[in-house]
Amino acid sequence: MALTLMAIGASAVMAMQKASVQGNLDARRADVANSIERLWVERLRRDAMLWTLPSPANPAGNNFTGTKFLNNVTGTWFLPNALVAAAVPISPAFDILGRDLADVSQARFCVHLRLTWLVQNVANPQDSLIRADVRVL
Quick one: which of 79, 103, 76, 105 has its CA closest to 92? Predict the structure, then answer.
């Protein structure tokens, strides 16, 4: 009788261990995905700094097309272009540790962006706003 109770208890402990390991793996993947999302939000912020015109000194100019990622404001999800030749390679593909990958076929995580106009002021482009959504798969 005692041996039967011990076997039932041991099987319950093994089942809990399996559930715990799977939960930890899922939590780790979610943490890496959140880290990748924050990285891409910062990349988009840095890219937005290139959009400096029009300005009081040059009210007729617009260098919006000089941005790397923000020039695709369509409102649909898209895969951002990889910048492998950059000093720090930028890619939409990431490995299991959250590092950029040049080879997309080895990716464990993938980033999609959706850029939509919140406010598009053609008369005063400096008053325009873009919403950026980042999705990590």
Answer: 79
* Secondary structure (3-state) at 23: helix
- What is d(CA 94, CA 136) in angstroms, rounded to the nearest whole number? 10
Strands 109-119 and 129-136: antiparallel
23 within 8 A of 39, measured Cβ to Cβ: no
Question: What is the per-residue pLDDT across 68-122, written as a single tens digit (0 to 9) for each?
Answer: 888 888 999 999 988 877 777 889 999 999 999 888 888 999 999 999 999 887 7
Distance, in Å, from the CA atom of 54 to the CA atom of 68, rounded to the nearest integer, reads 18
pTM of the model: 0.80
Q: Phi-psi region for residue 75, left (φ > 0), alpha (ψ -120 to 50) or beta? A: left
Residues 57-67 have pLDDT tens digits of 777 777 877 88
Query: Is the separation of the CB atoms in 67 and 48 below 8 Å?
Result: yes
Contact 79, 91 (CB under 8 A): no
